[in-house]
């Protein structure tokens, strides 16, 4: 055997084995079987030796080259596996580290309360509508059986707007009830609709009053609607919102646009009627006004009061949310302190 070949065959396996990285192995490969290696030189020299010697030397070169190629491939597999393992180790995520939690936003309590209210009524087949916050005196009052000389209109909590025709008495709606009239003018009976919205009154801020607050108006008009329908519907709503054990009570009241009219209380979820700090003592929480639609309202919007009857209600959303969550001052809903708001996910 050619001495260069036997030297190589003797020394190369150890060099291959000693290669500690893929780069080193590449270099060893170059040196042993690459283009400038003894193997390559011997292959080139085949052309210059006597033809009868060629097969023997040729076979020897091939044997050594095959053996080294095989050894290099195996070493490469080992080094690649090691590199892969090192990469995995370096990339490892330490799951025992405490996570850095991103602050997660949430809906405002008023928004989620309205969504929940609307959900309860759409579940009963009601539609949802909304209307303008800047209203005319006609929709906010006249259409609702509250003519200009009516005491309820003279009470000074309406915020008027200096805009448009003064005869229209532009104002910030004091209630969502004007949407009763707007909706009936645009739809034939039967009507089953709820109207969430913001209302405005010239009132000082105190724990339960704010100059801006939210209502959900409800209106049901059909043939043969009775006070029983009103009570059943609103009692269902109360149980859905406050829990199945919730009791309701109706106290006679006055609203110009309903006759008879009532306010509805729910039994306090915290003391179930015996009296506590949440309900402020009486064991009942007032949450809405309601009544049977006054025939004068039907006449104002062009409905025939002899053909249909109906009931209406106005829910105070802020009060409802405060009652359910034991919030004692309405300003907490308006100050946008995320420490307060974040509690109601
Ligand atoms: N609009 C009344 C208010 O703001 C609430 C109300 C009472 C609405 C009785 C109604 C109703 O639809 O029937 O005080």
Number of strands: 9
Largest sheet: 7 strands, mixed
Taking the alpha carbons of the first and last residues, their distance comes to 85 Å
Radius of gyration: 43 Å
* Tally of DSSP helical segments: 12
Low confidence ranges: none
Coarse structural class: alpha+beta
Hetero compounds: 3,4-dihydroxyphenylalanine
State the order of secondary-structure elements, H for helix, E for strand: HHHHHEEHHEHEEHEEEHEHH
Assign a percent range to the helix content: 40-55%
Give average pLDDT, whole number: 92
Order the strands across the largest sheet as they lie in space: 1-4-5-9-8-7-6
**SS strand fraction:** 15-25%
Give the overall form: rod-shaped
Topology, element by element:
Blueprint: H1 3-18, H2 22-33, H3 38-45, H4 54-91, H5 109-122, E1 127-128, E2 134-135, H6 137-140, H7 151-154, E3 171-172, H8 178-186, E4 191-200, E5 212-222, H9 227-242, E6 248-255, E7 258-267, E8 284-293, H10 295-301, E9 309-316, H11 317-325, H12 338-341
Parallel strand pairs: 1-4
Antiparallel strand pairs: 2-3, 4-5, 5-9, 6-7, 7-8, 8-9
Helix pairs in contact: 1-2, 1-4, 2-4, 5-11, 8-10
3,4-dihydroxyphenylalanine (DAH) binds next to strand 7, strand 8 and strand 9.
Task: Describe it.
The protein has 345 residues and is an alpha+beta fold. Helices cover 41% and strands 18% of the residues. It is built from twelve helices and nine strands. The protein has helices at residues 3-18, 22-33, 38-45, 54-91, 109-122, 137-140, 151-154, 178-186, 227-242, 295-301, 317-325, 338-341, and strands spanning 127-128, 134-135, 171-172, 191-200, 212-222, 248-255, 258-267, 284-293, 309-316. The strands form two sheets. The chain has a seven-stranded mixed beta sheet, sandwiched between helices. A two-stranded antiparallel ribbon has the order 2-3. A hairpin with a 2-residue loop joins strand 6 (248-255) and strand 7 (258-267). Helix 5 (109-122) crosses helix 11 (317-325) and helix 8 (178-186) packs across helix 10. It is rod-shaped. The mean pLDDT is 92. The protein binds 3,4-dihydroxyphenylalanine. 3,4-dihydroxyphenylalanine (DAH) binds next to strand 7, strand 8 and strand 9.
């Amino acid at each position: 055997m050619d001495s260069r070949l036997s030297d190589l065959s003797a020394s190369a396996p150890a060099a291959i084995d000693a290669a500690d990285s893929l780069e080193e192995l590449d270099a060893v490969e170059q040196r042993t079987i690459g283009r400038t290696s003894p193997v390559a030189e011997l292959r080139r020299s085949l052309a210059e030796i006597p033809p009868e010697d060629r097969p023997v030397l040729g076979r020897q070169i091939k044997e050594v080259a095959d053996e080294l190629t095989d050894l290099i491939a195996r070493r490469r597999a080992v080094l690649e596996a090691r590199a892969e393992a090192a990469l995995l180790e370096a990339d490892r995520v330490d799951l025992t580290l405490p996570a850095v939690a991103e602050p997660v936003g949430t809906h405002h309590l008023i928004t989620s309360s309205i969504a929940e209210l609307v959900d309860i009524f759409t579940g009963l087949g009601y539609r949802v509508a909304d209307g303008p916050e800047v209203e005319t005196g006609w929709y906010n009052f006249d259409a609702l059986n509250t003519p200009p000389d009516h005491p309820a209109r003279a009470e000074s909590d309406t915020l008027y707007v200096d805009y448009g025709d003064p005869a229209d008495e532009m104002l910030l709606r004091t209630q969502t009830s004007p949407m009763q009239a707007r909706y009936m003018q645009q739809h034939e009976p039967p009507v089953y609709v709820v109207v969430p919205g913001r209302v405005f009154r010239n009132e000082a801020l105190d724990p339960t009053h704010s100059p801006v607050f939210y209502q959900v108006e409800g209106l049901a008009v059909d043939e043969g609607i009775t006070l029983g329908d009103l009570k059943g519907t609103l009692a269902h709503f109360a149980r859905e919102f406050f829990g199945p054990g919730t009791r309701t009570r109706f106290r006679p009241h006055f609203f110009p646009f309903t006759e008879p009219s009532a306010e509805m209380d729910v039994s306090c979820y915290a003391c179930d009627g015996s009296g506590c700090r949440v309900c402020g003592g009486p064991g009942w929480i007032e949450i809405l006004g309601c009544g049977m639609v006054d025939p004068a309202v039907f006449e104002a919007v062009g409905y025939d009061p002899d053909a249909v009857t109906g009931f209406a209600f106005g829910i105070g959303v802020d009060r409802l949310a405060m009652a359910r969550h034991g919030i004692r001052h309405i300003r907490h809903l308006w100050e946008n302190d995320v420490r307060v708001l974040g509690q109601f996910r």
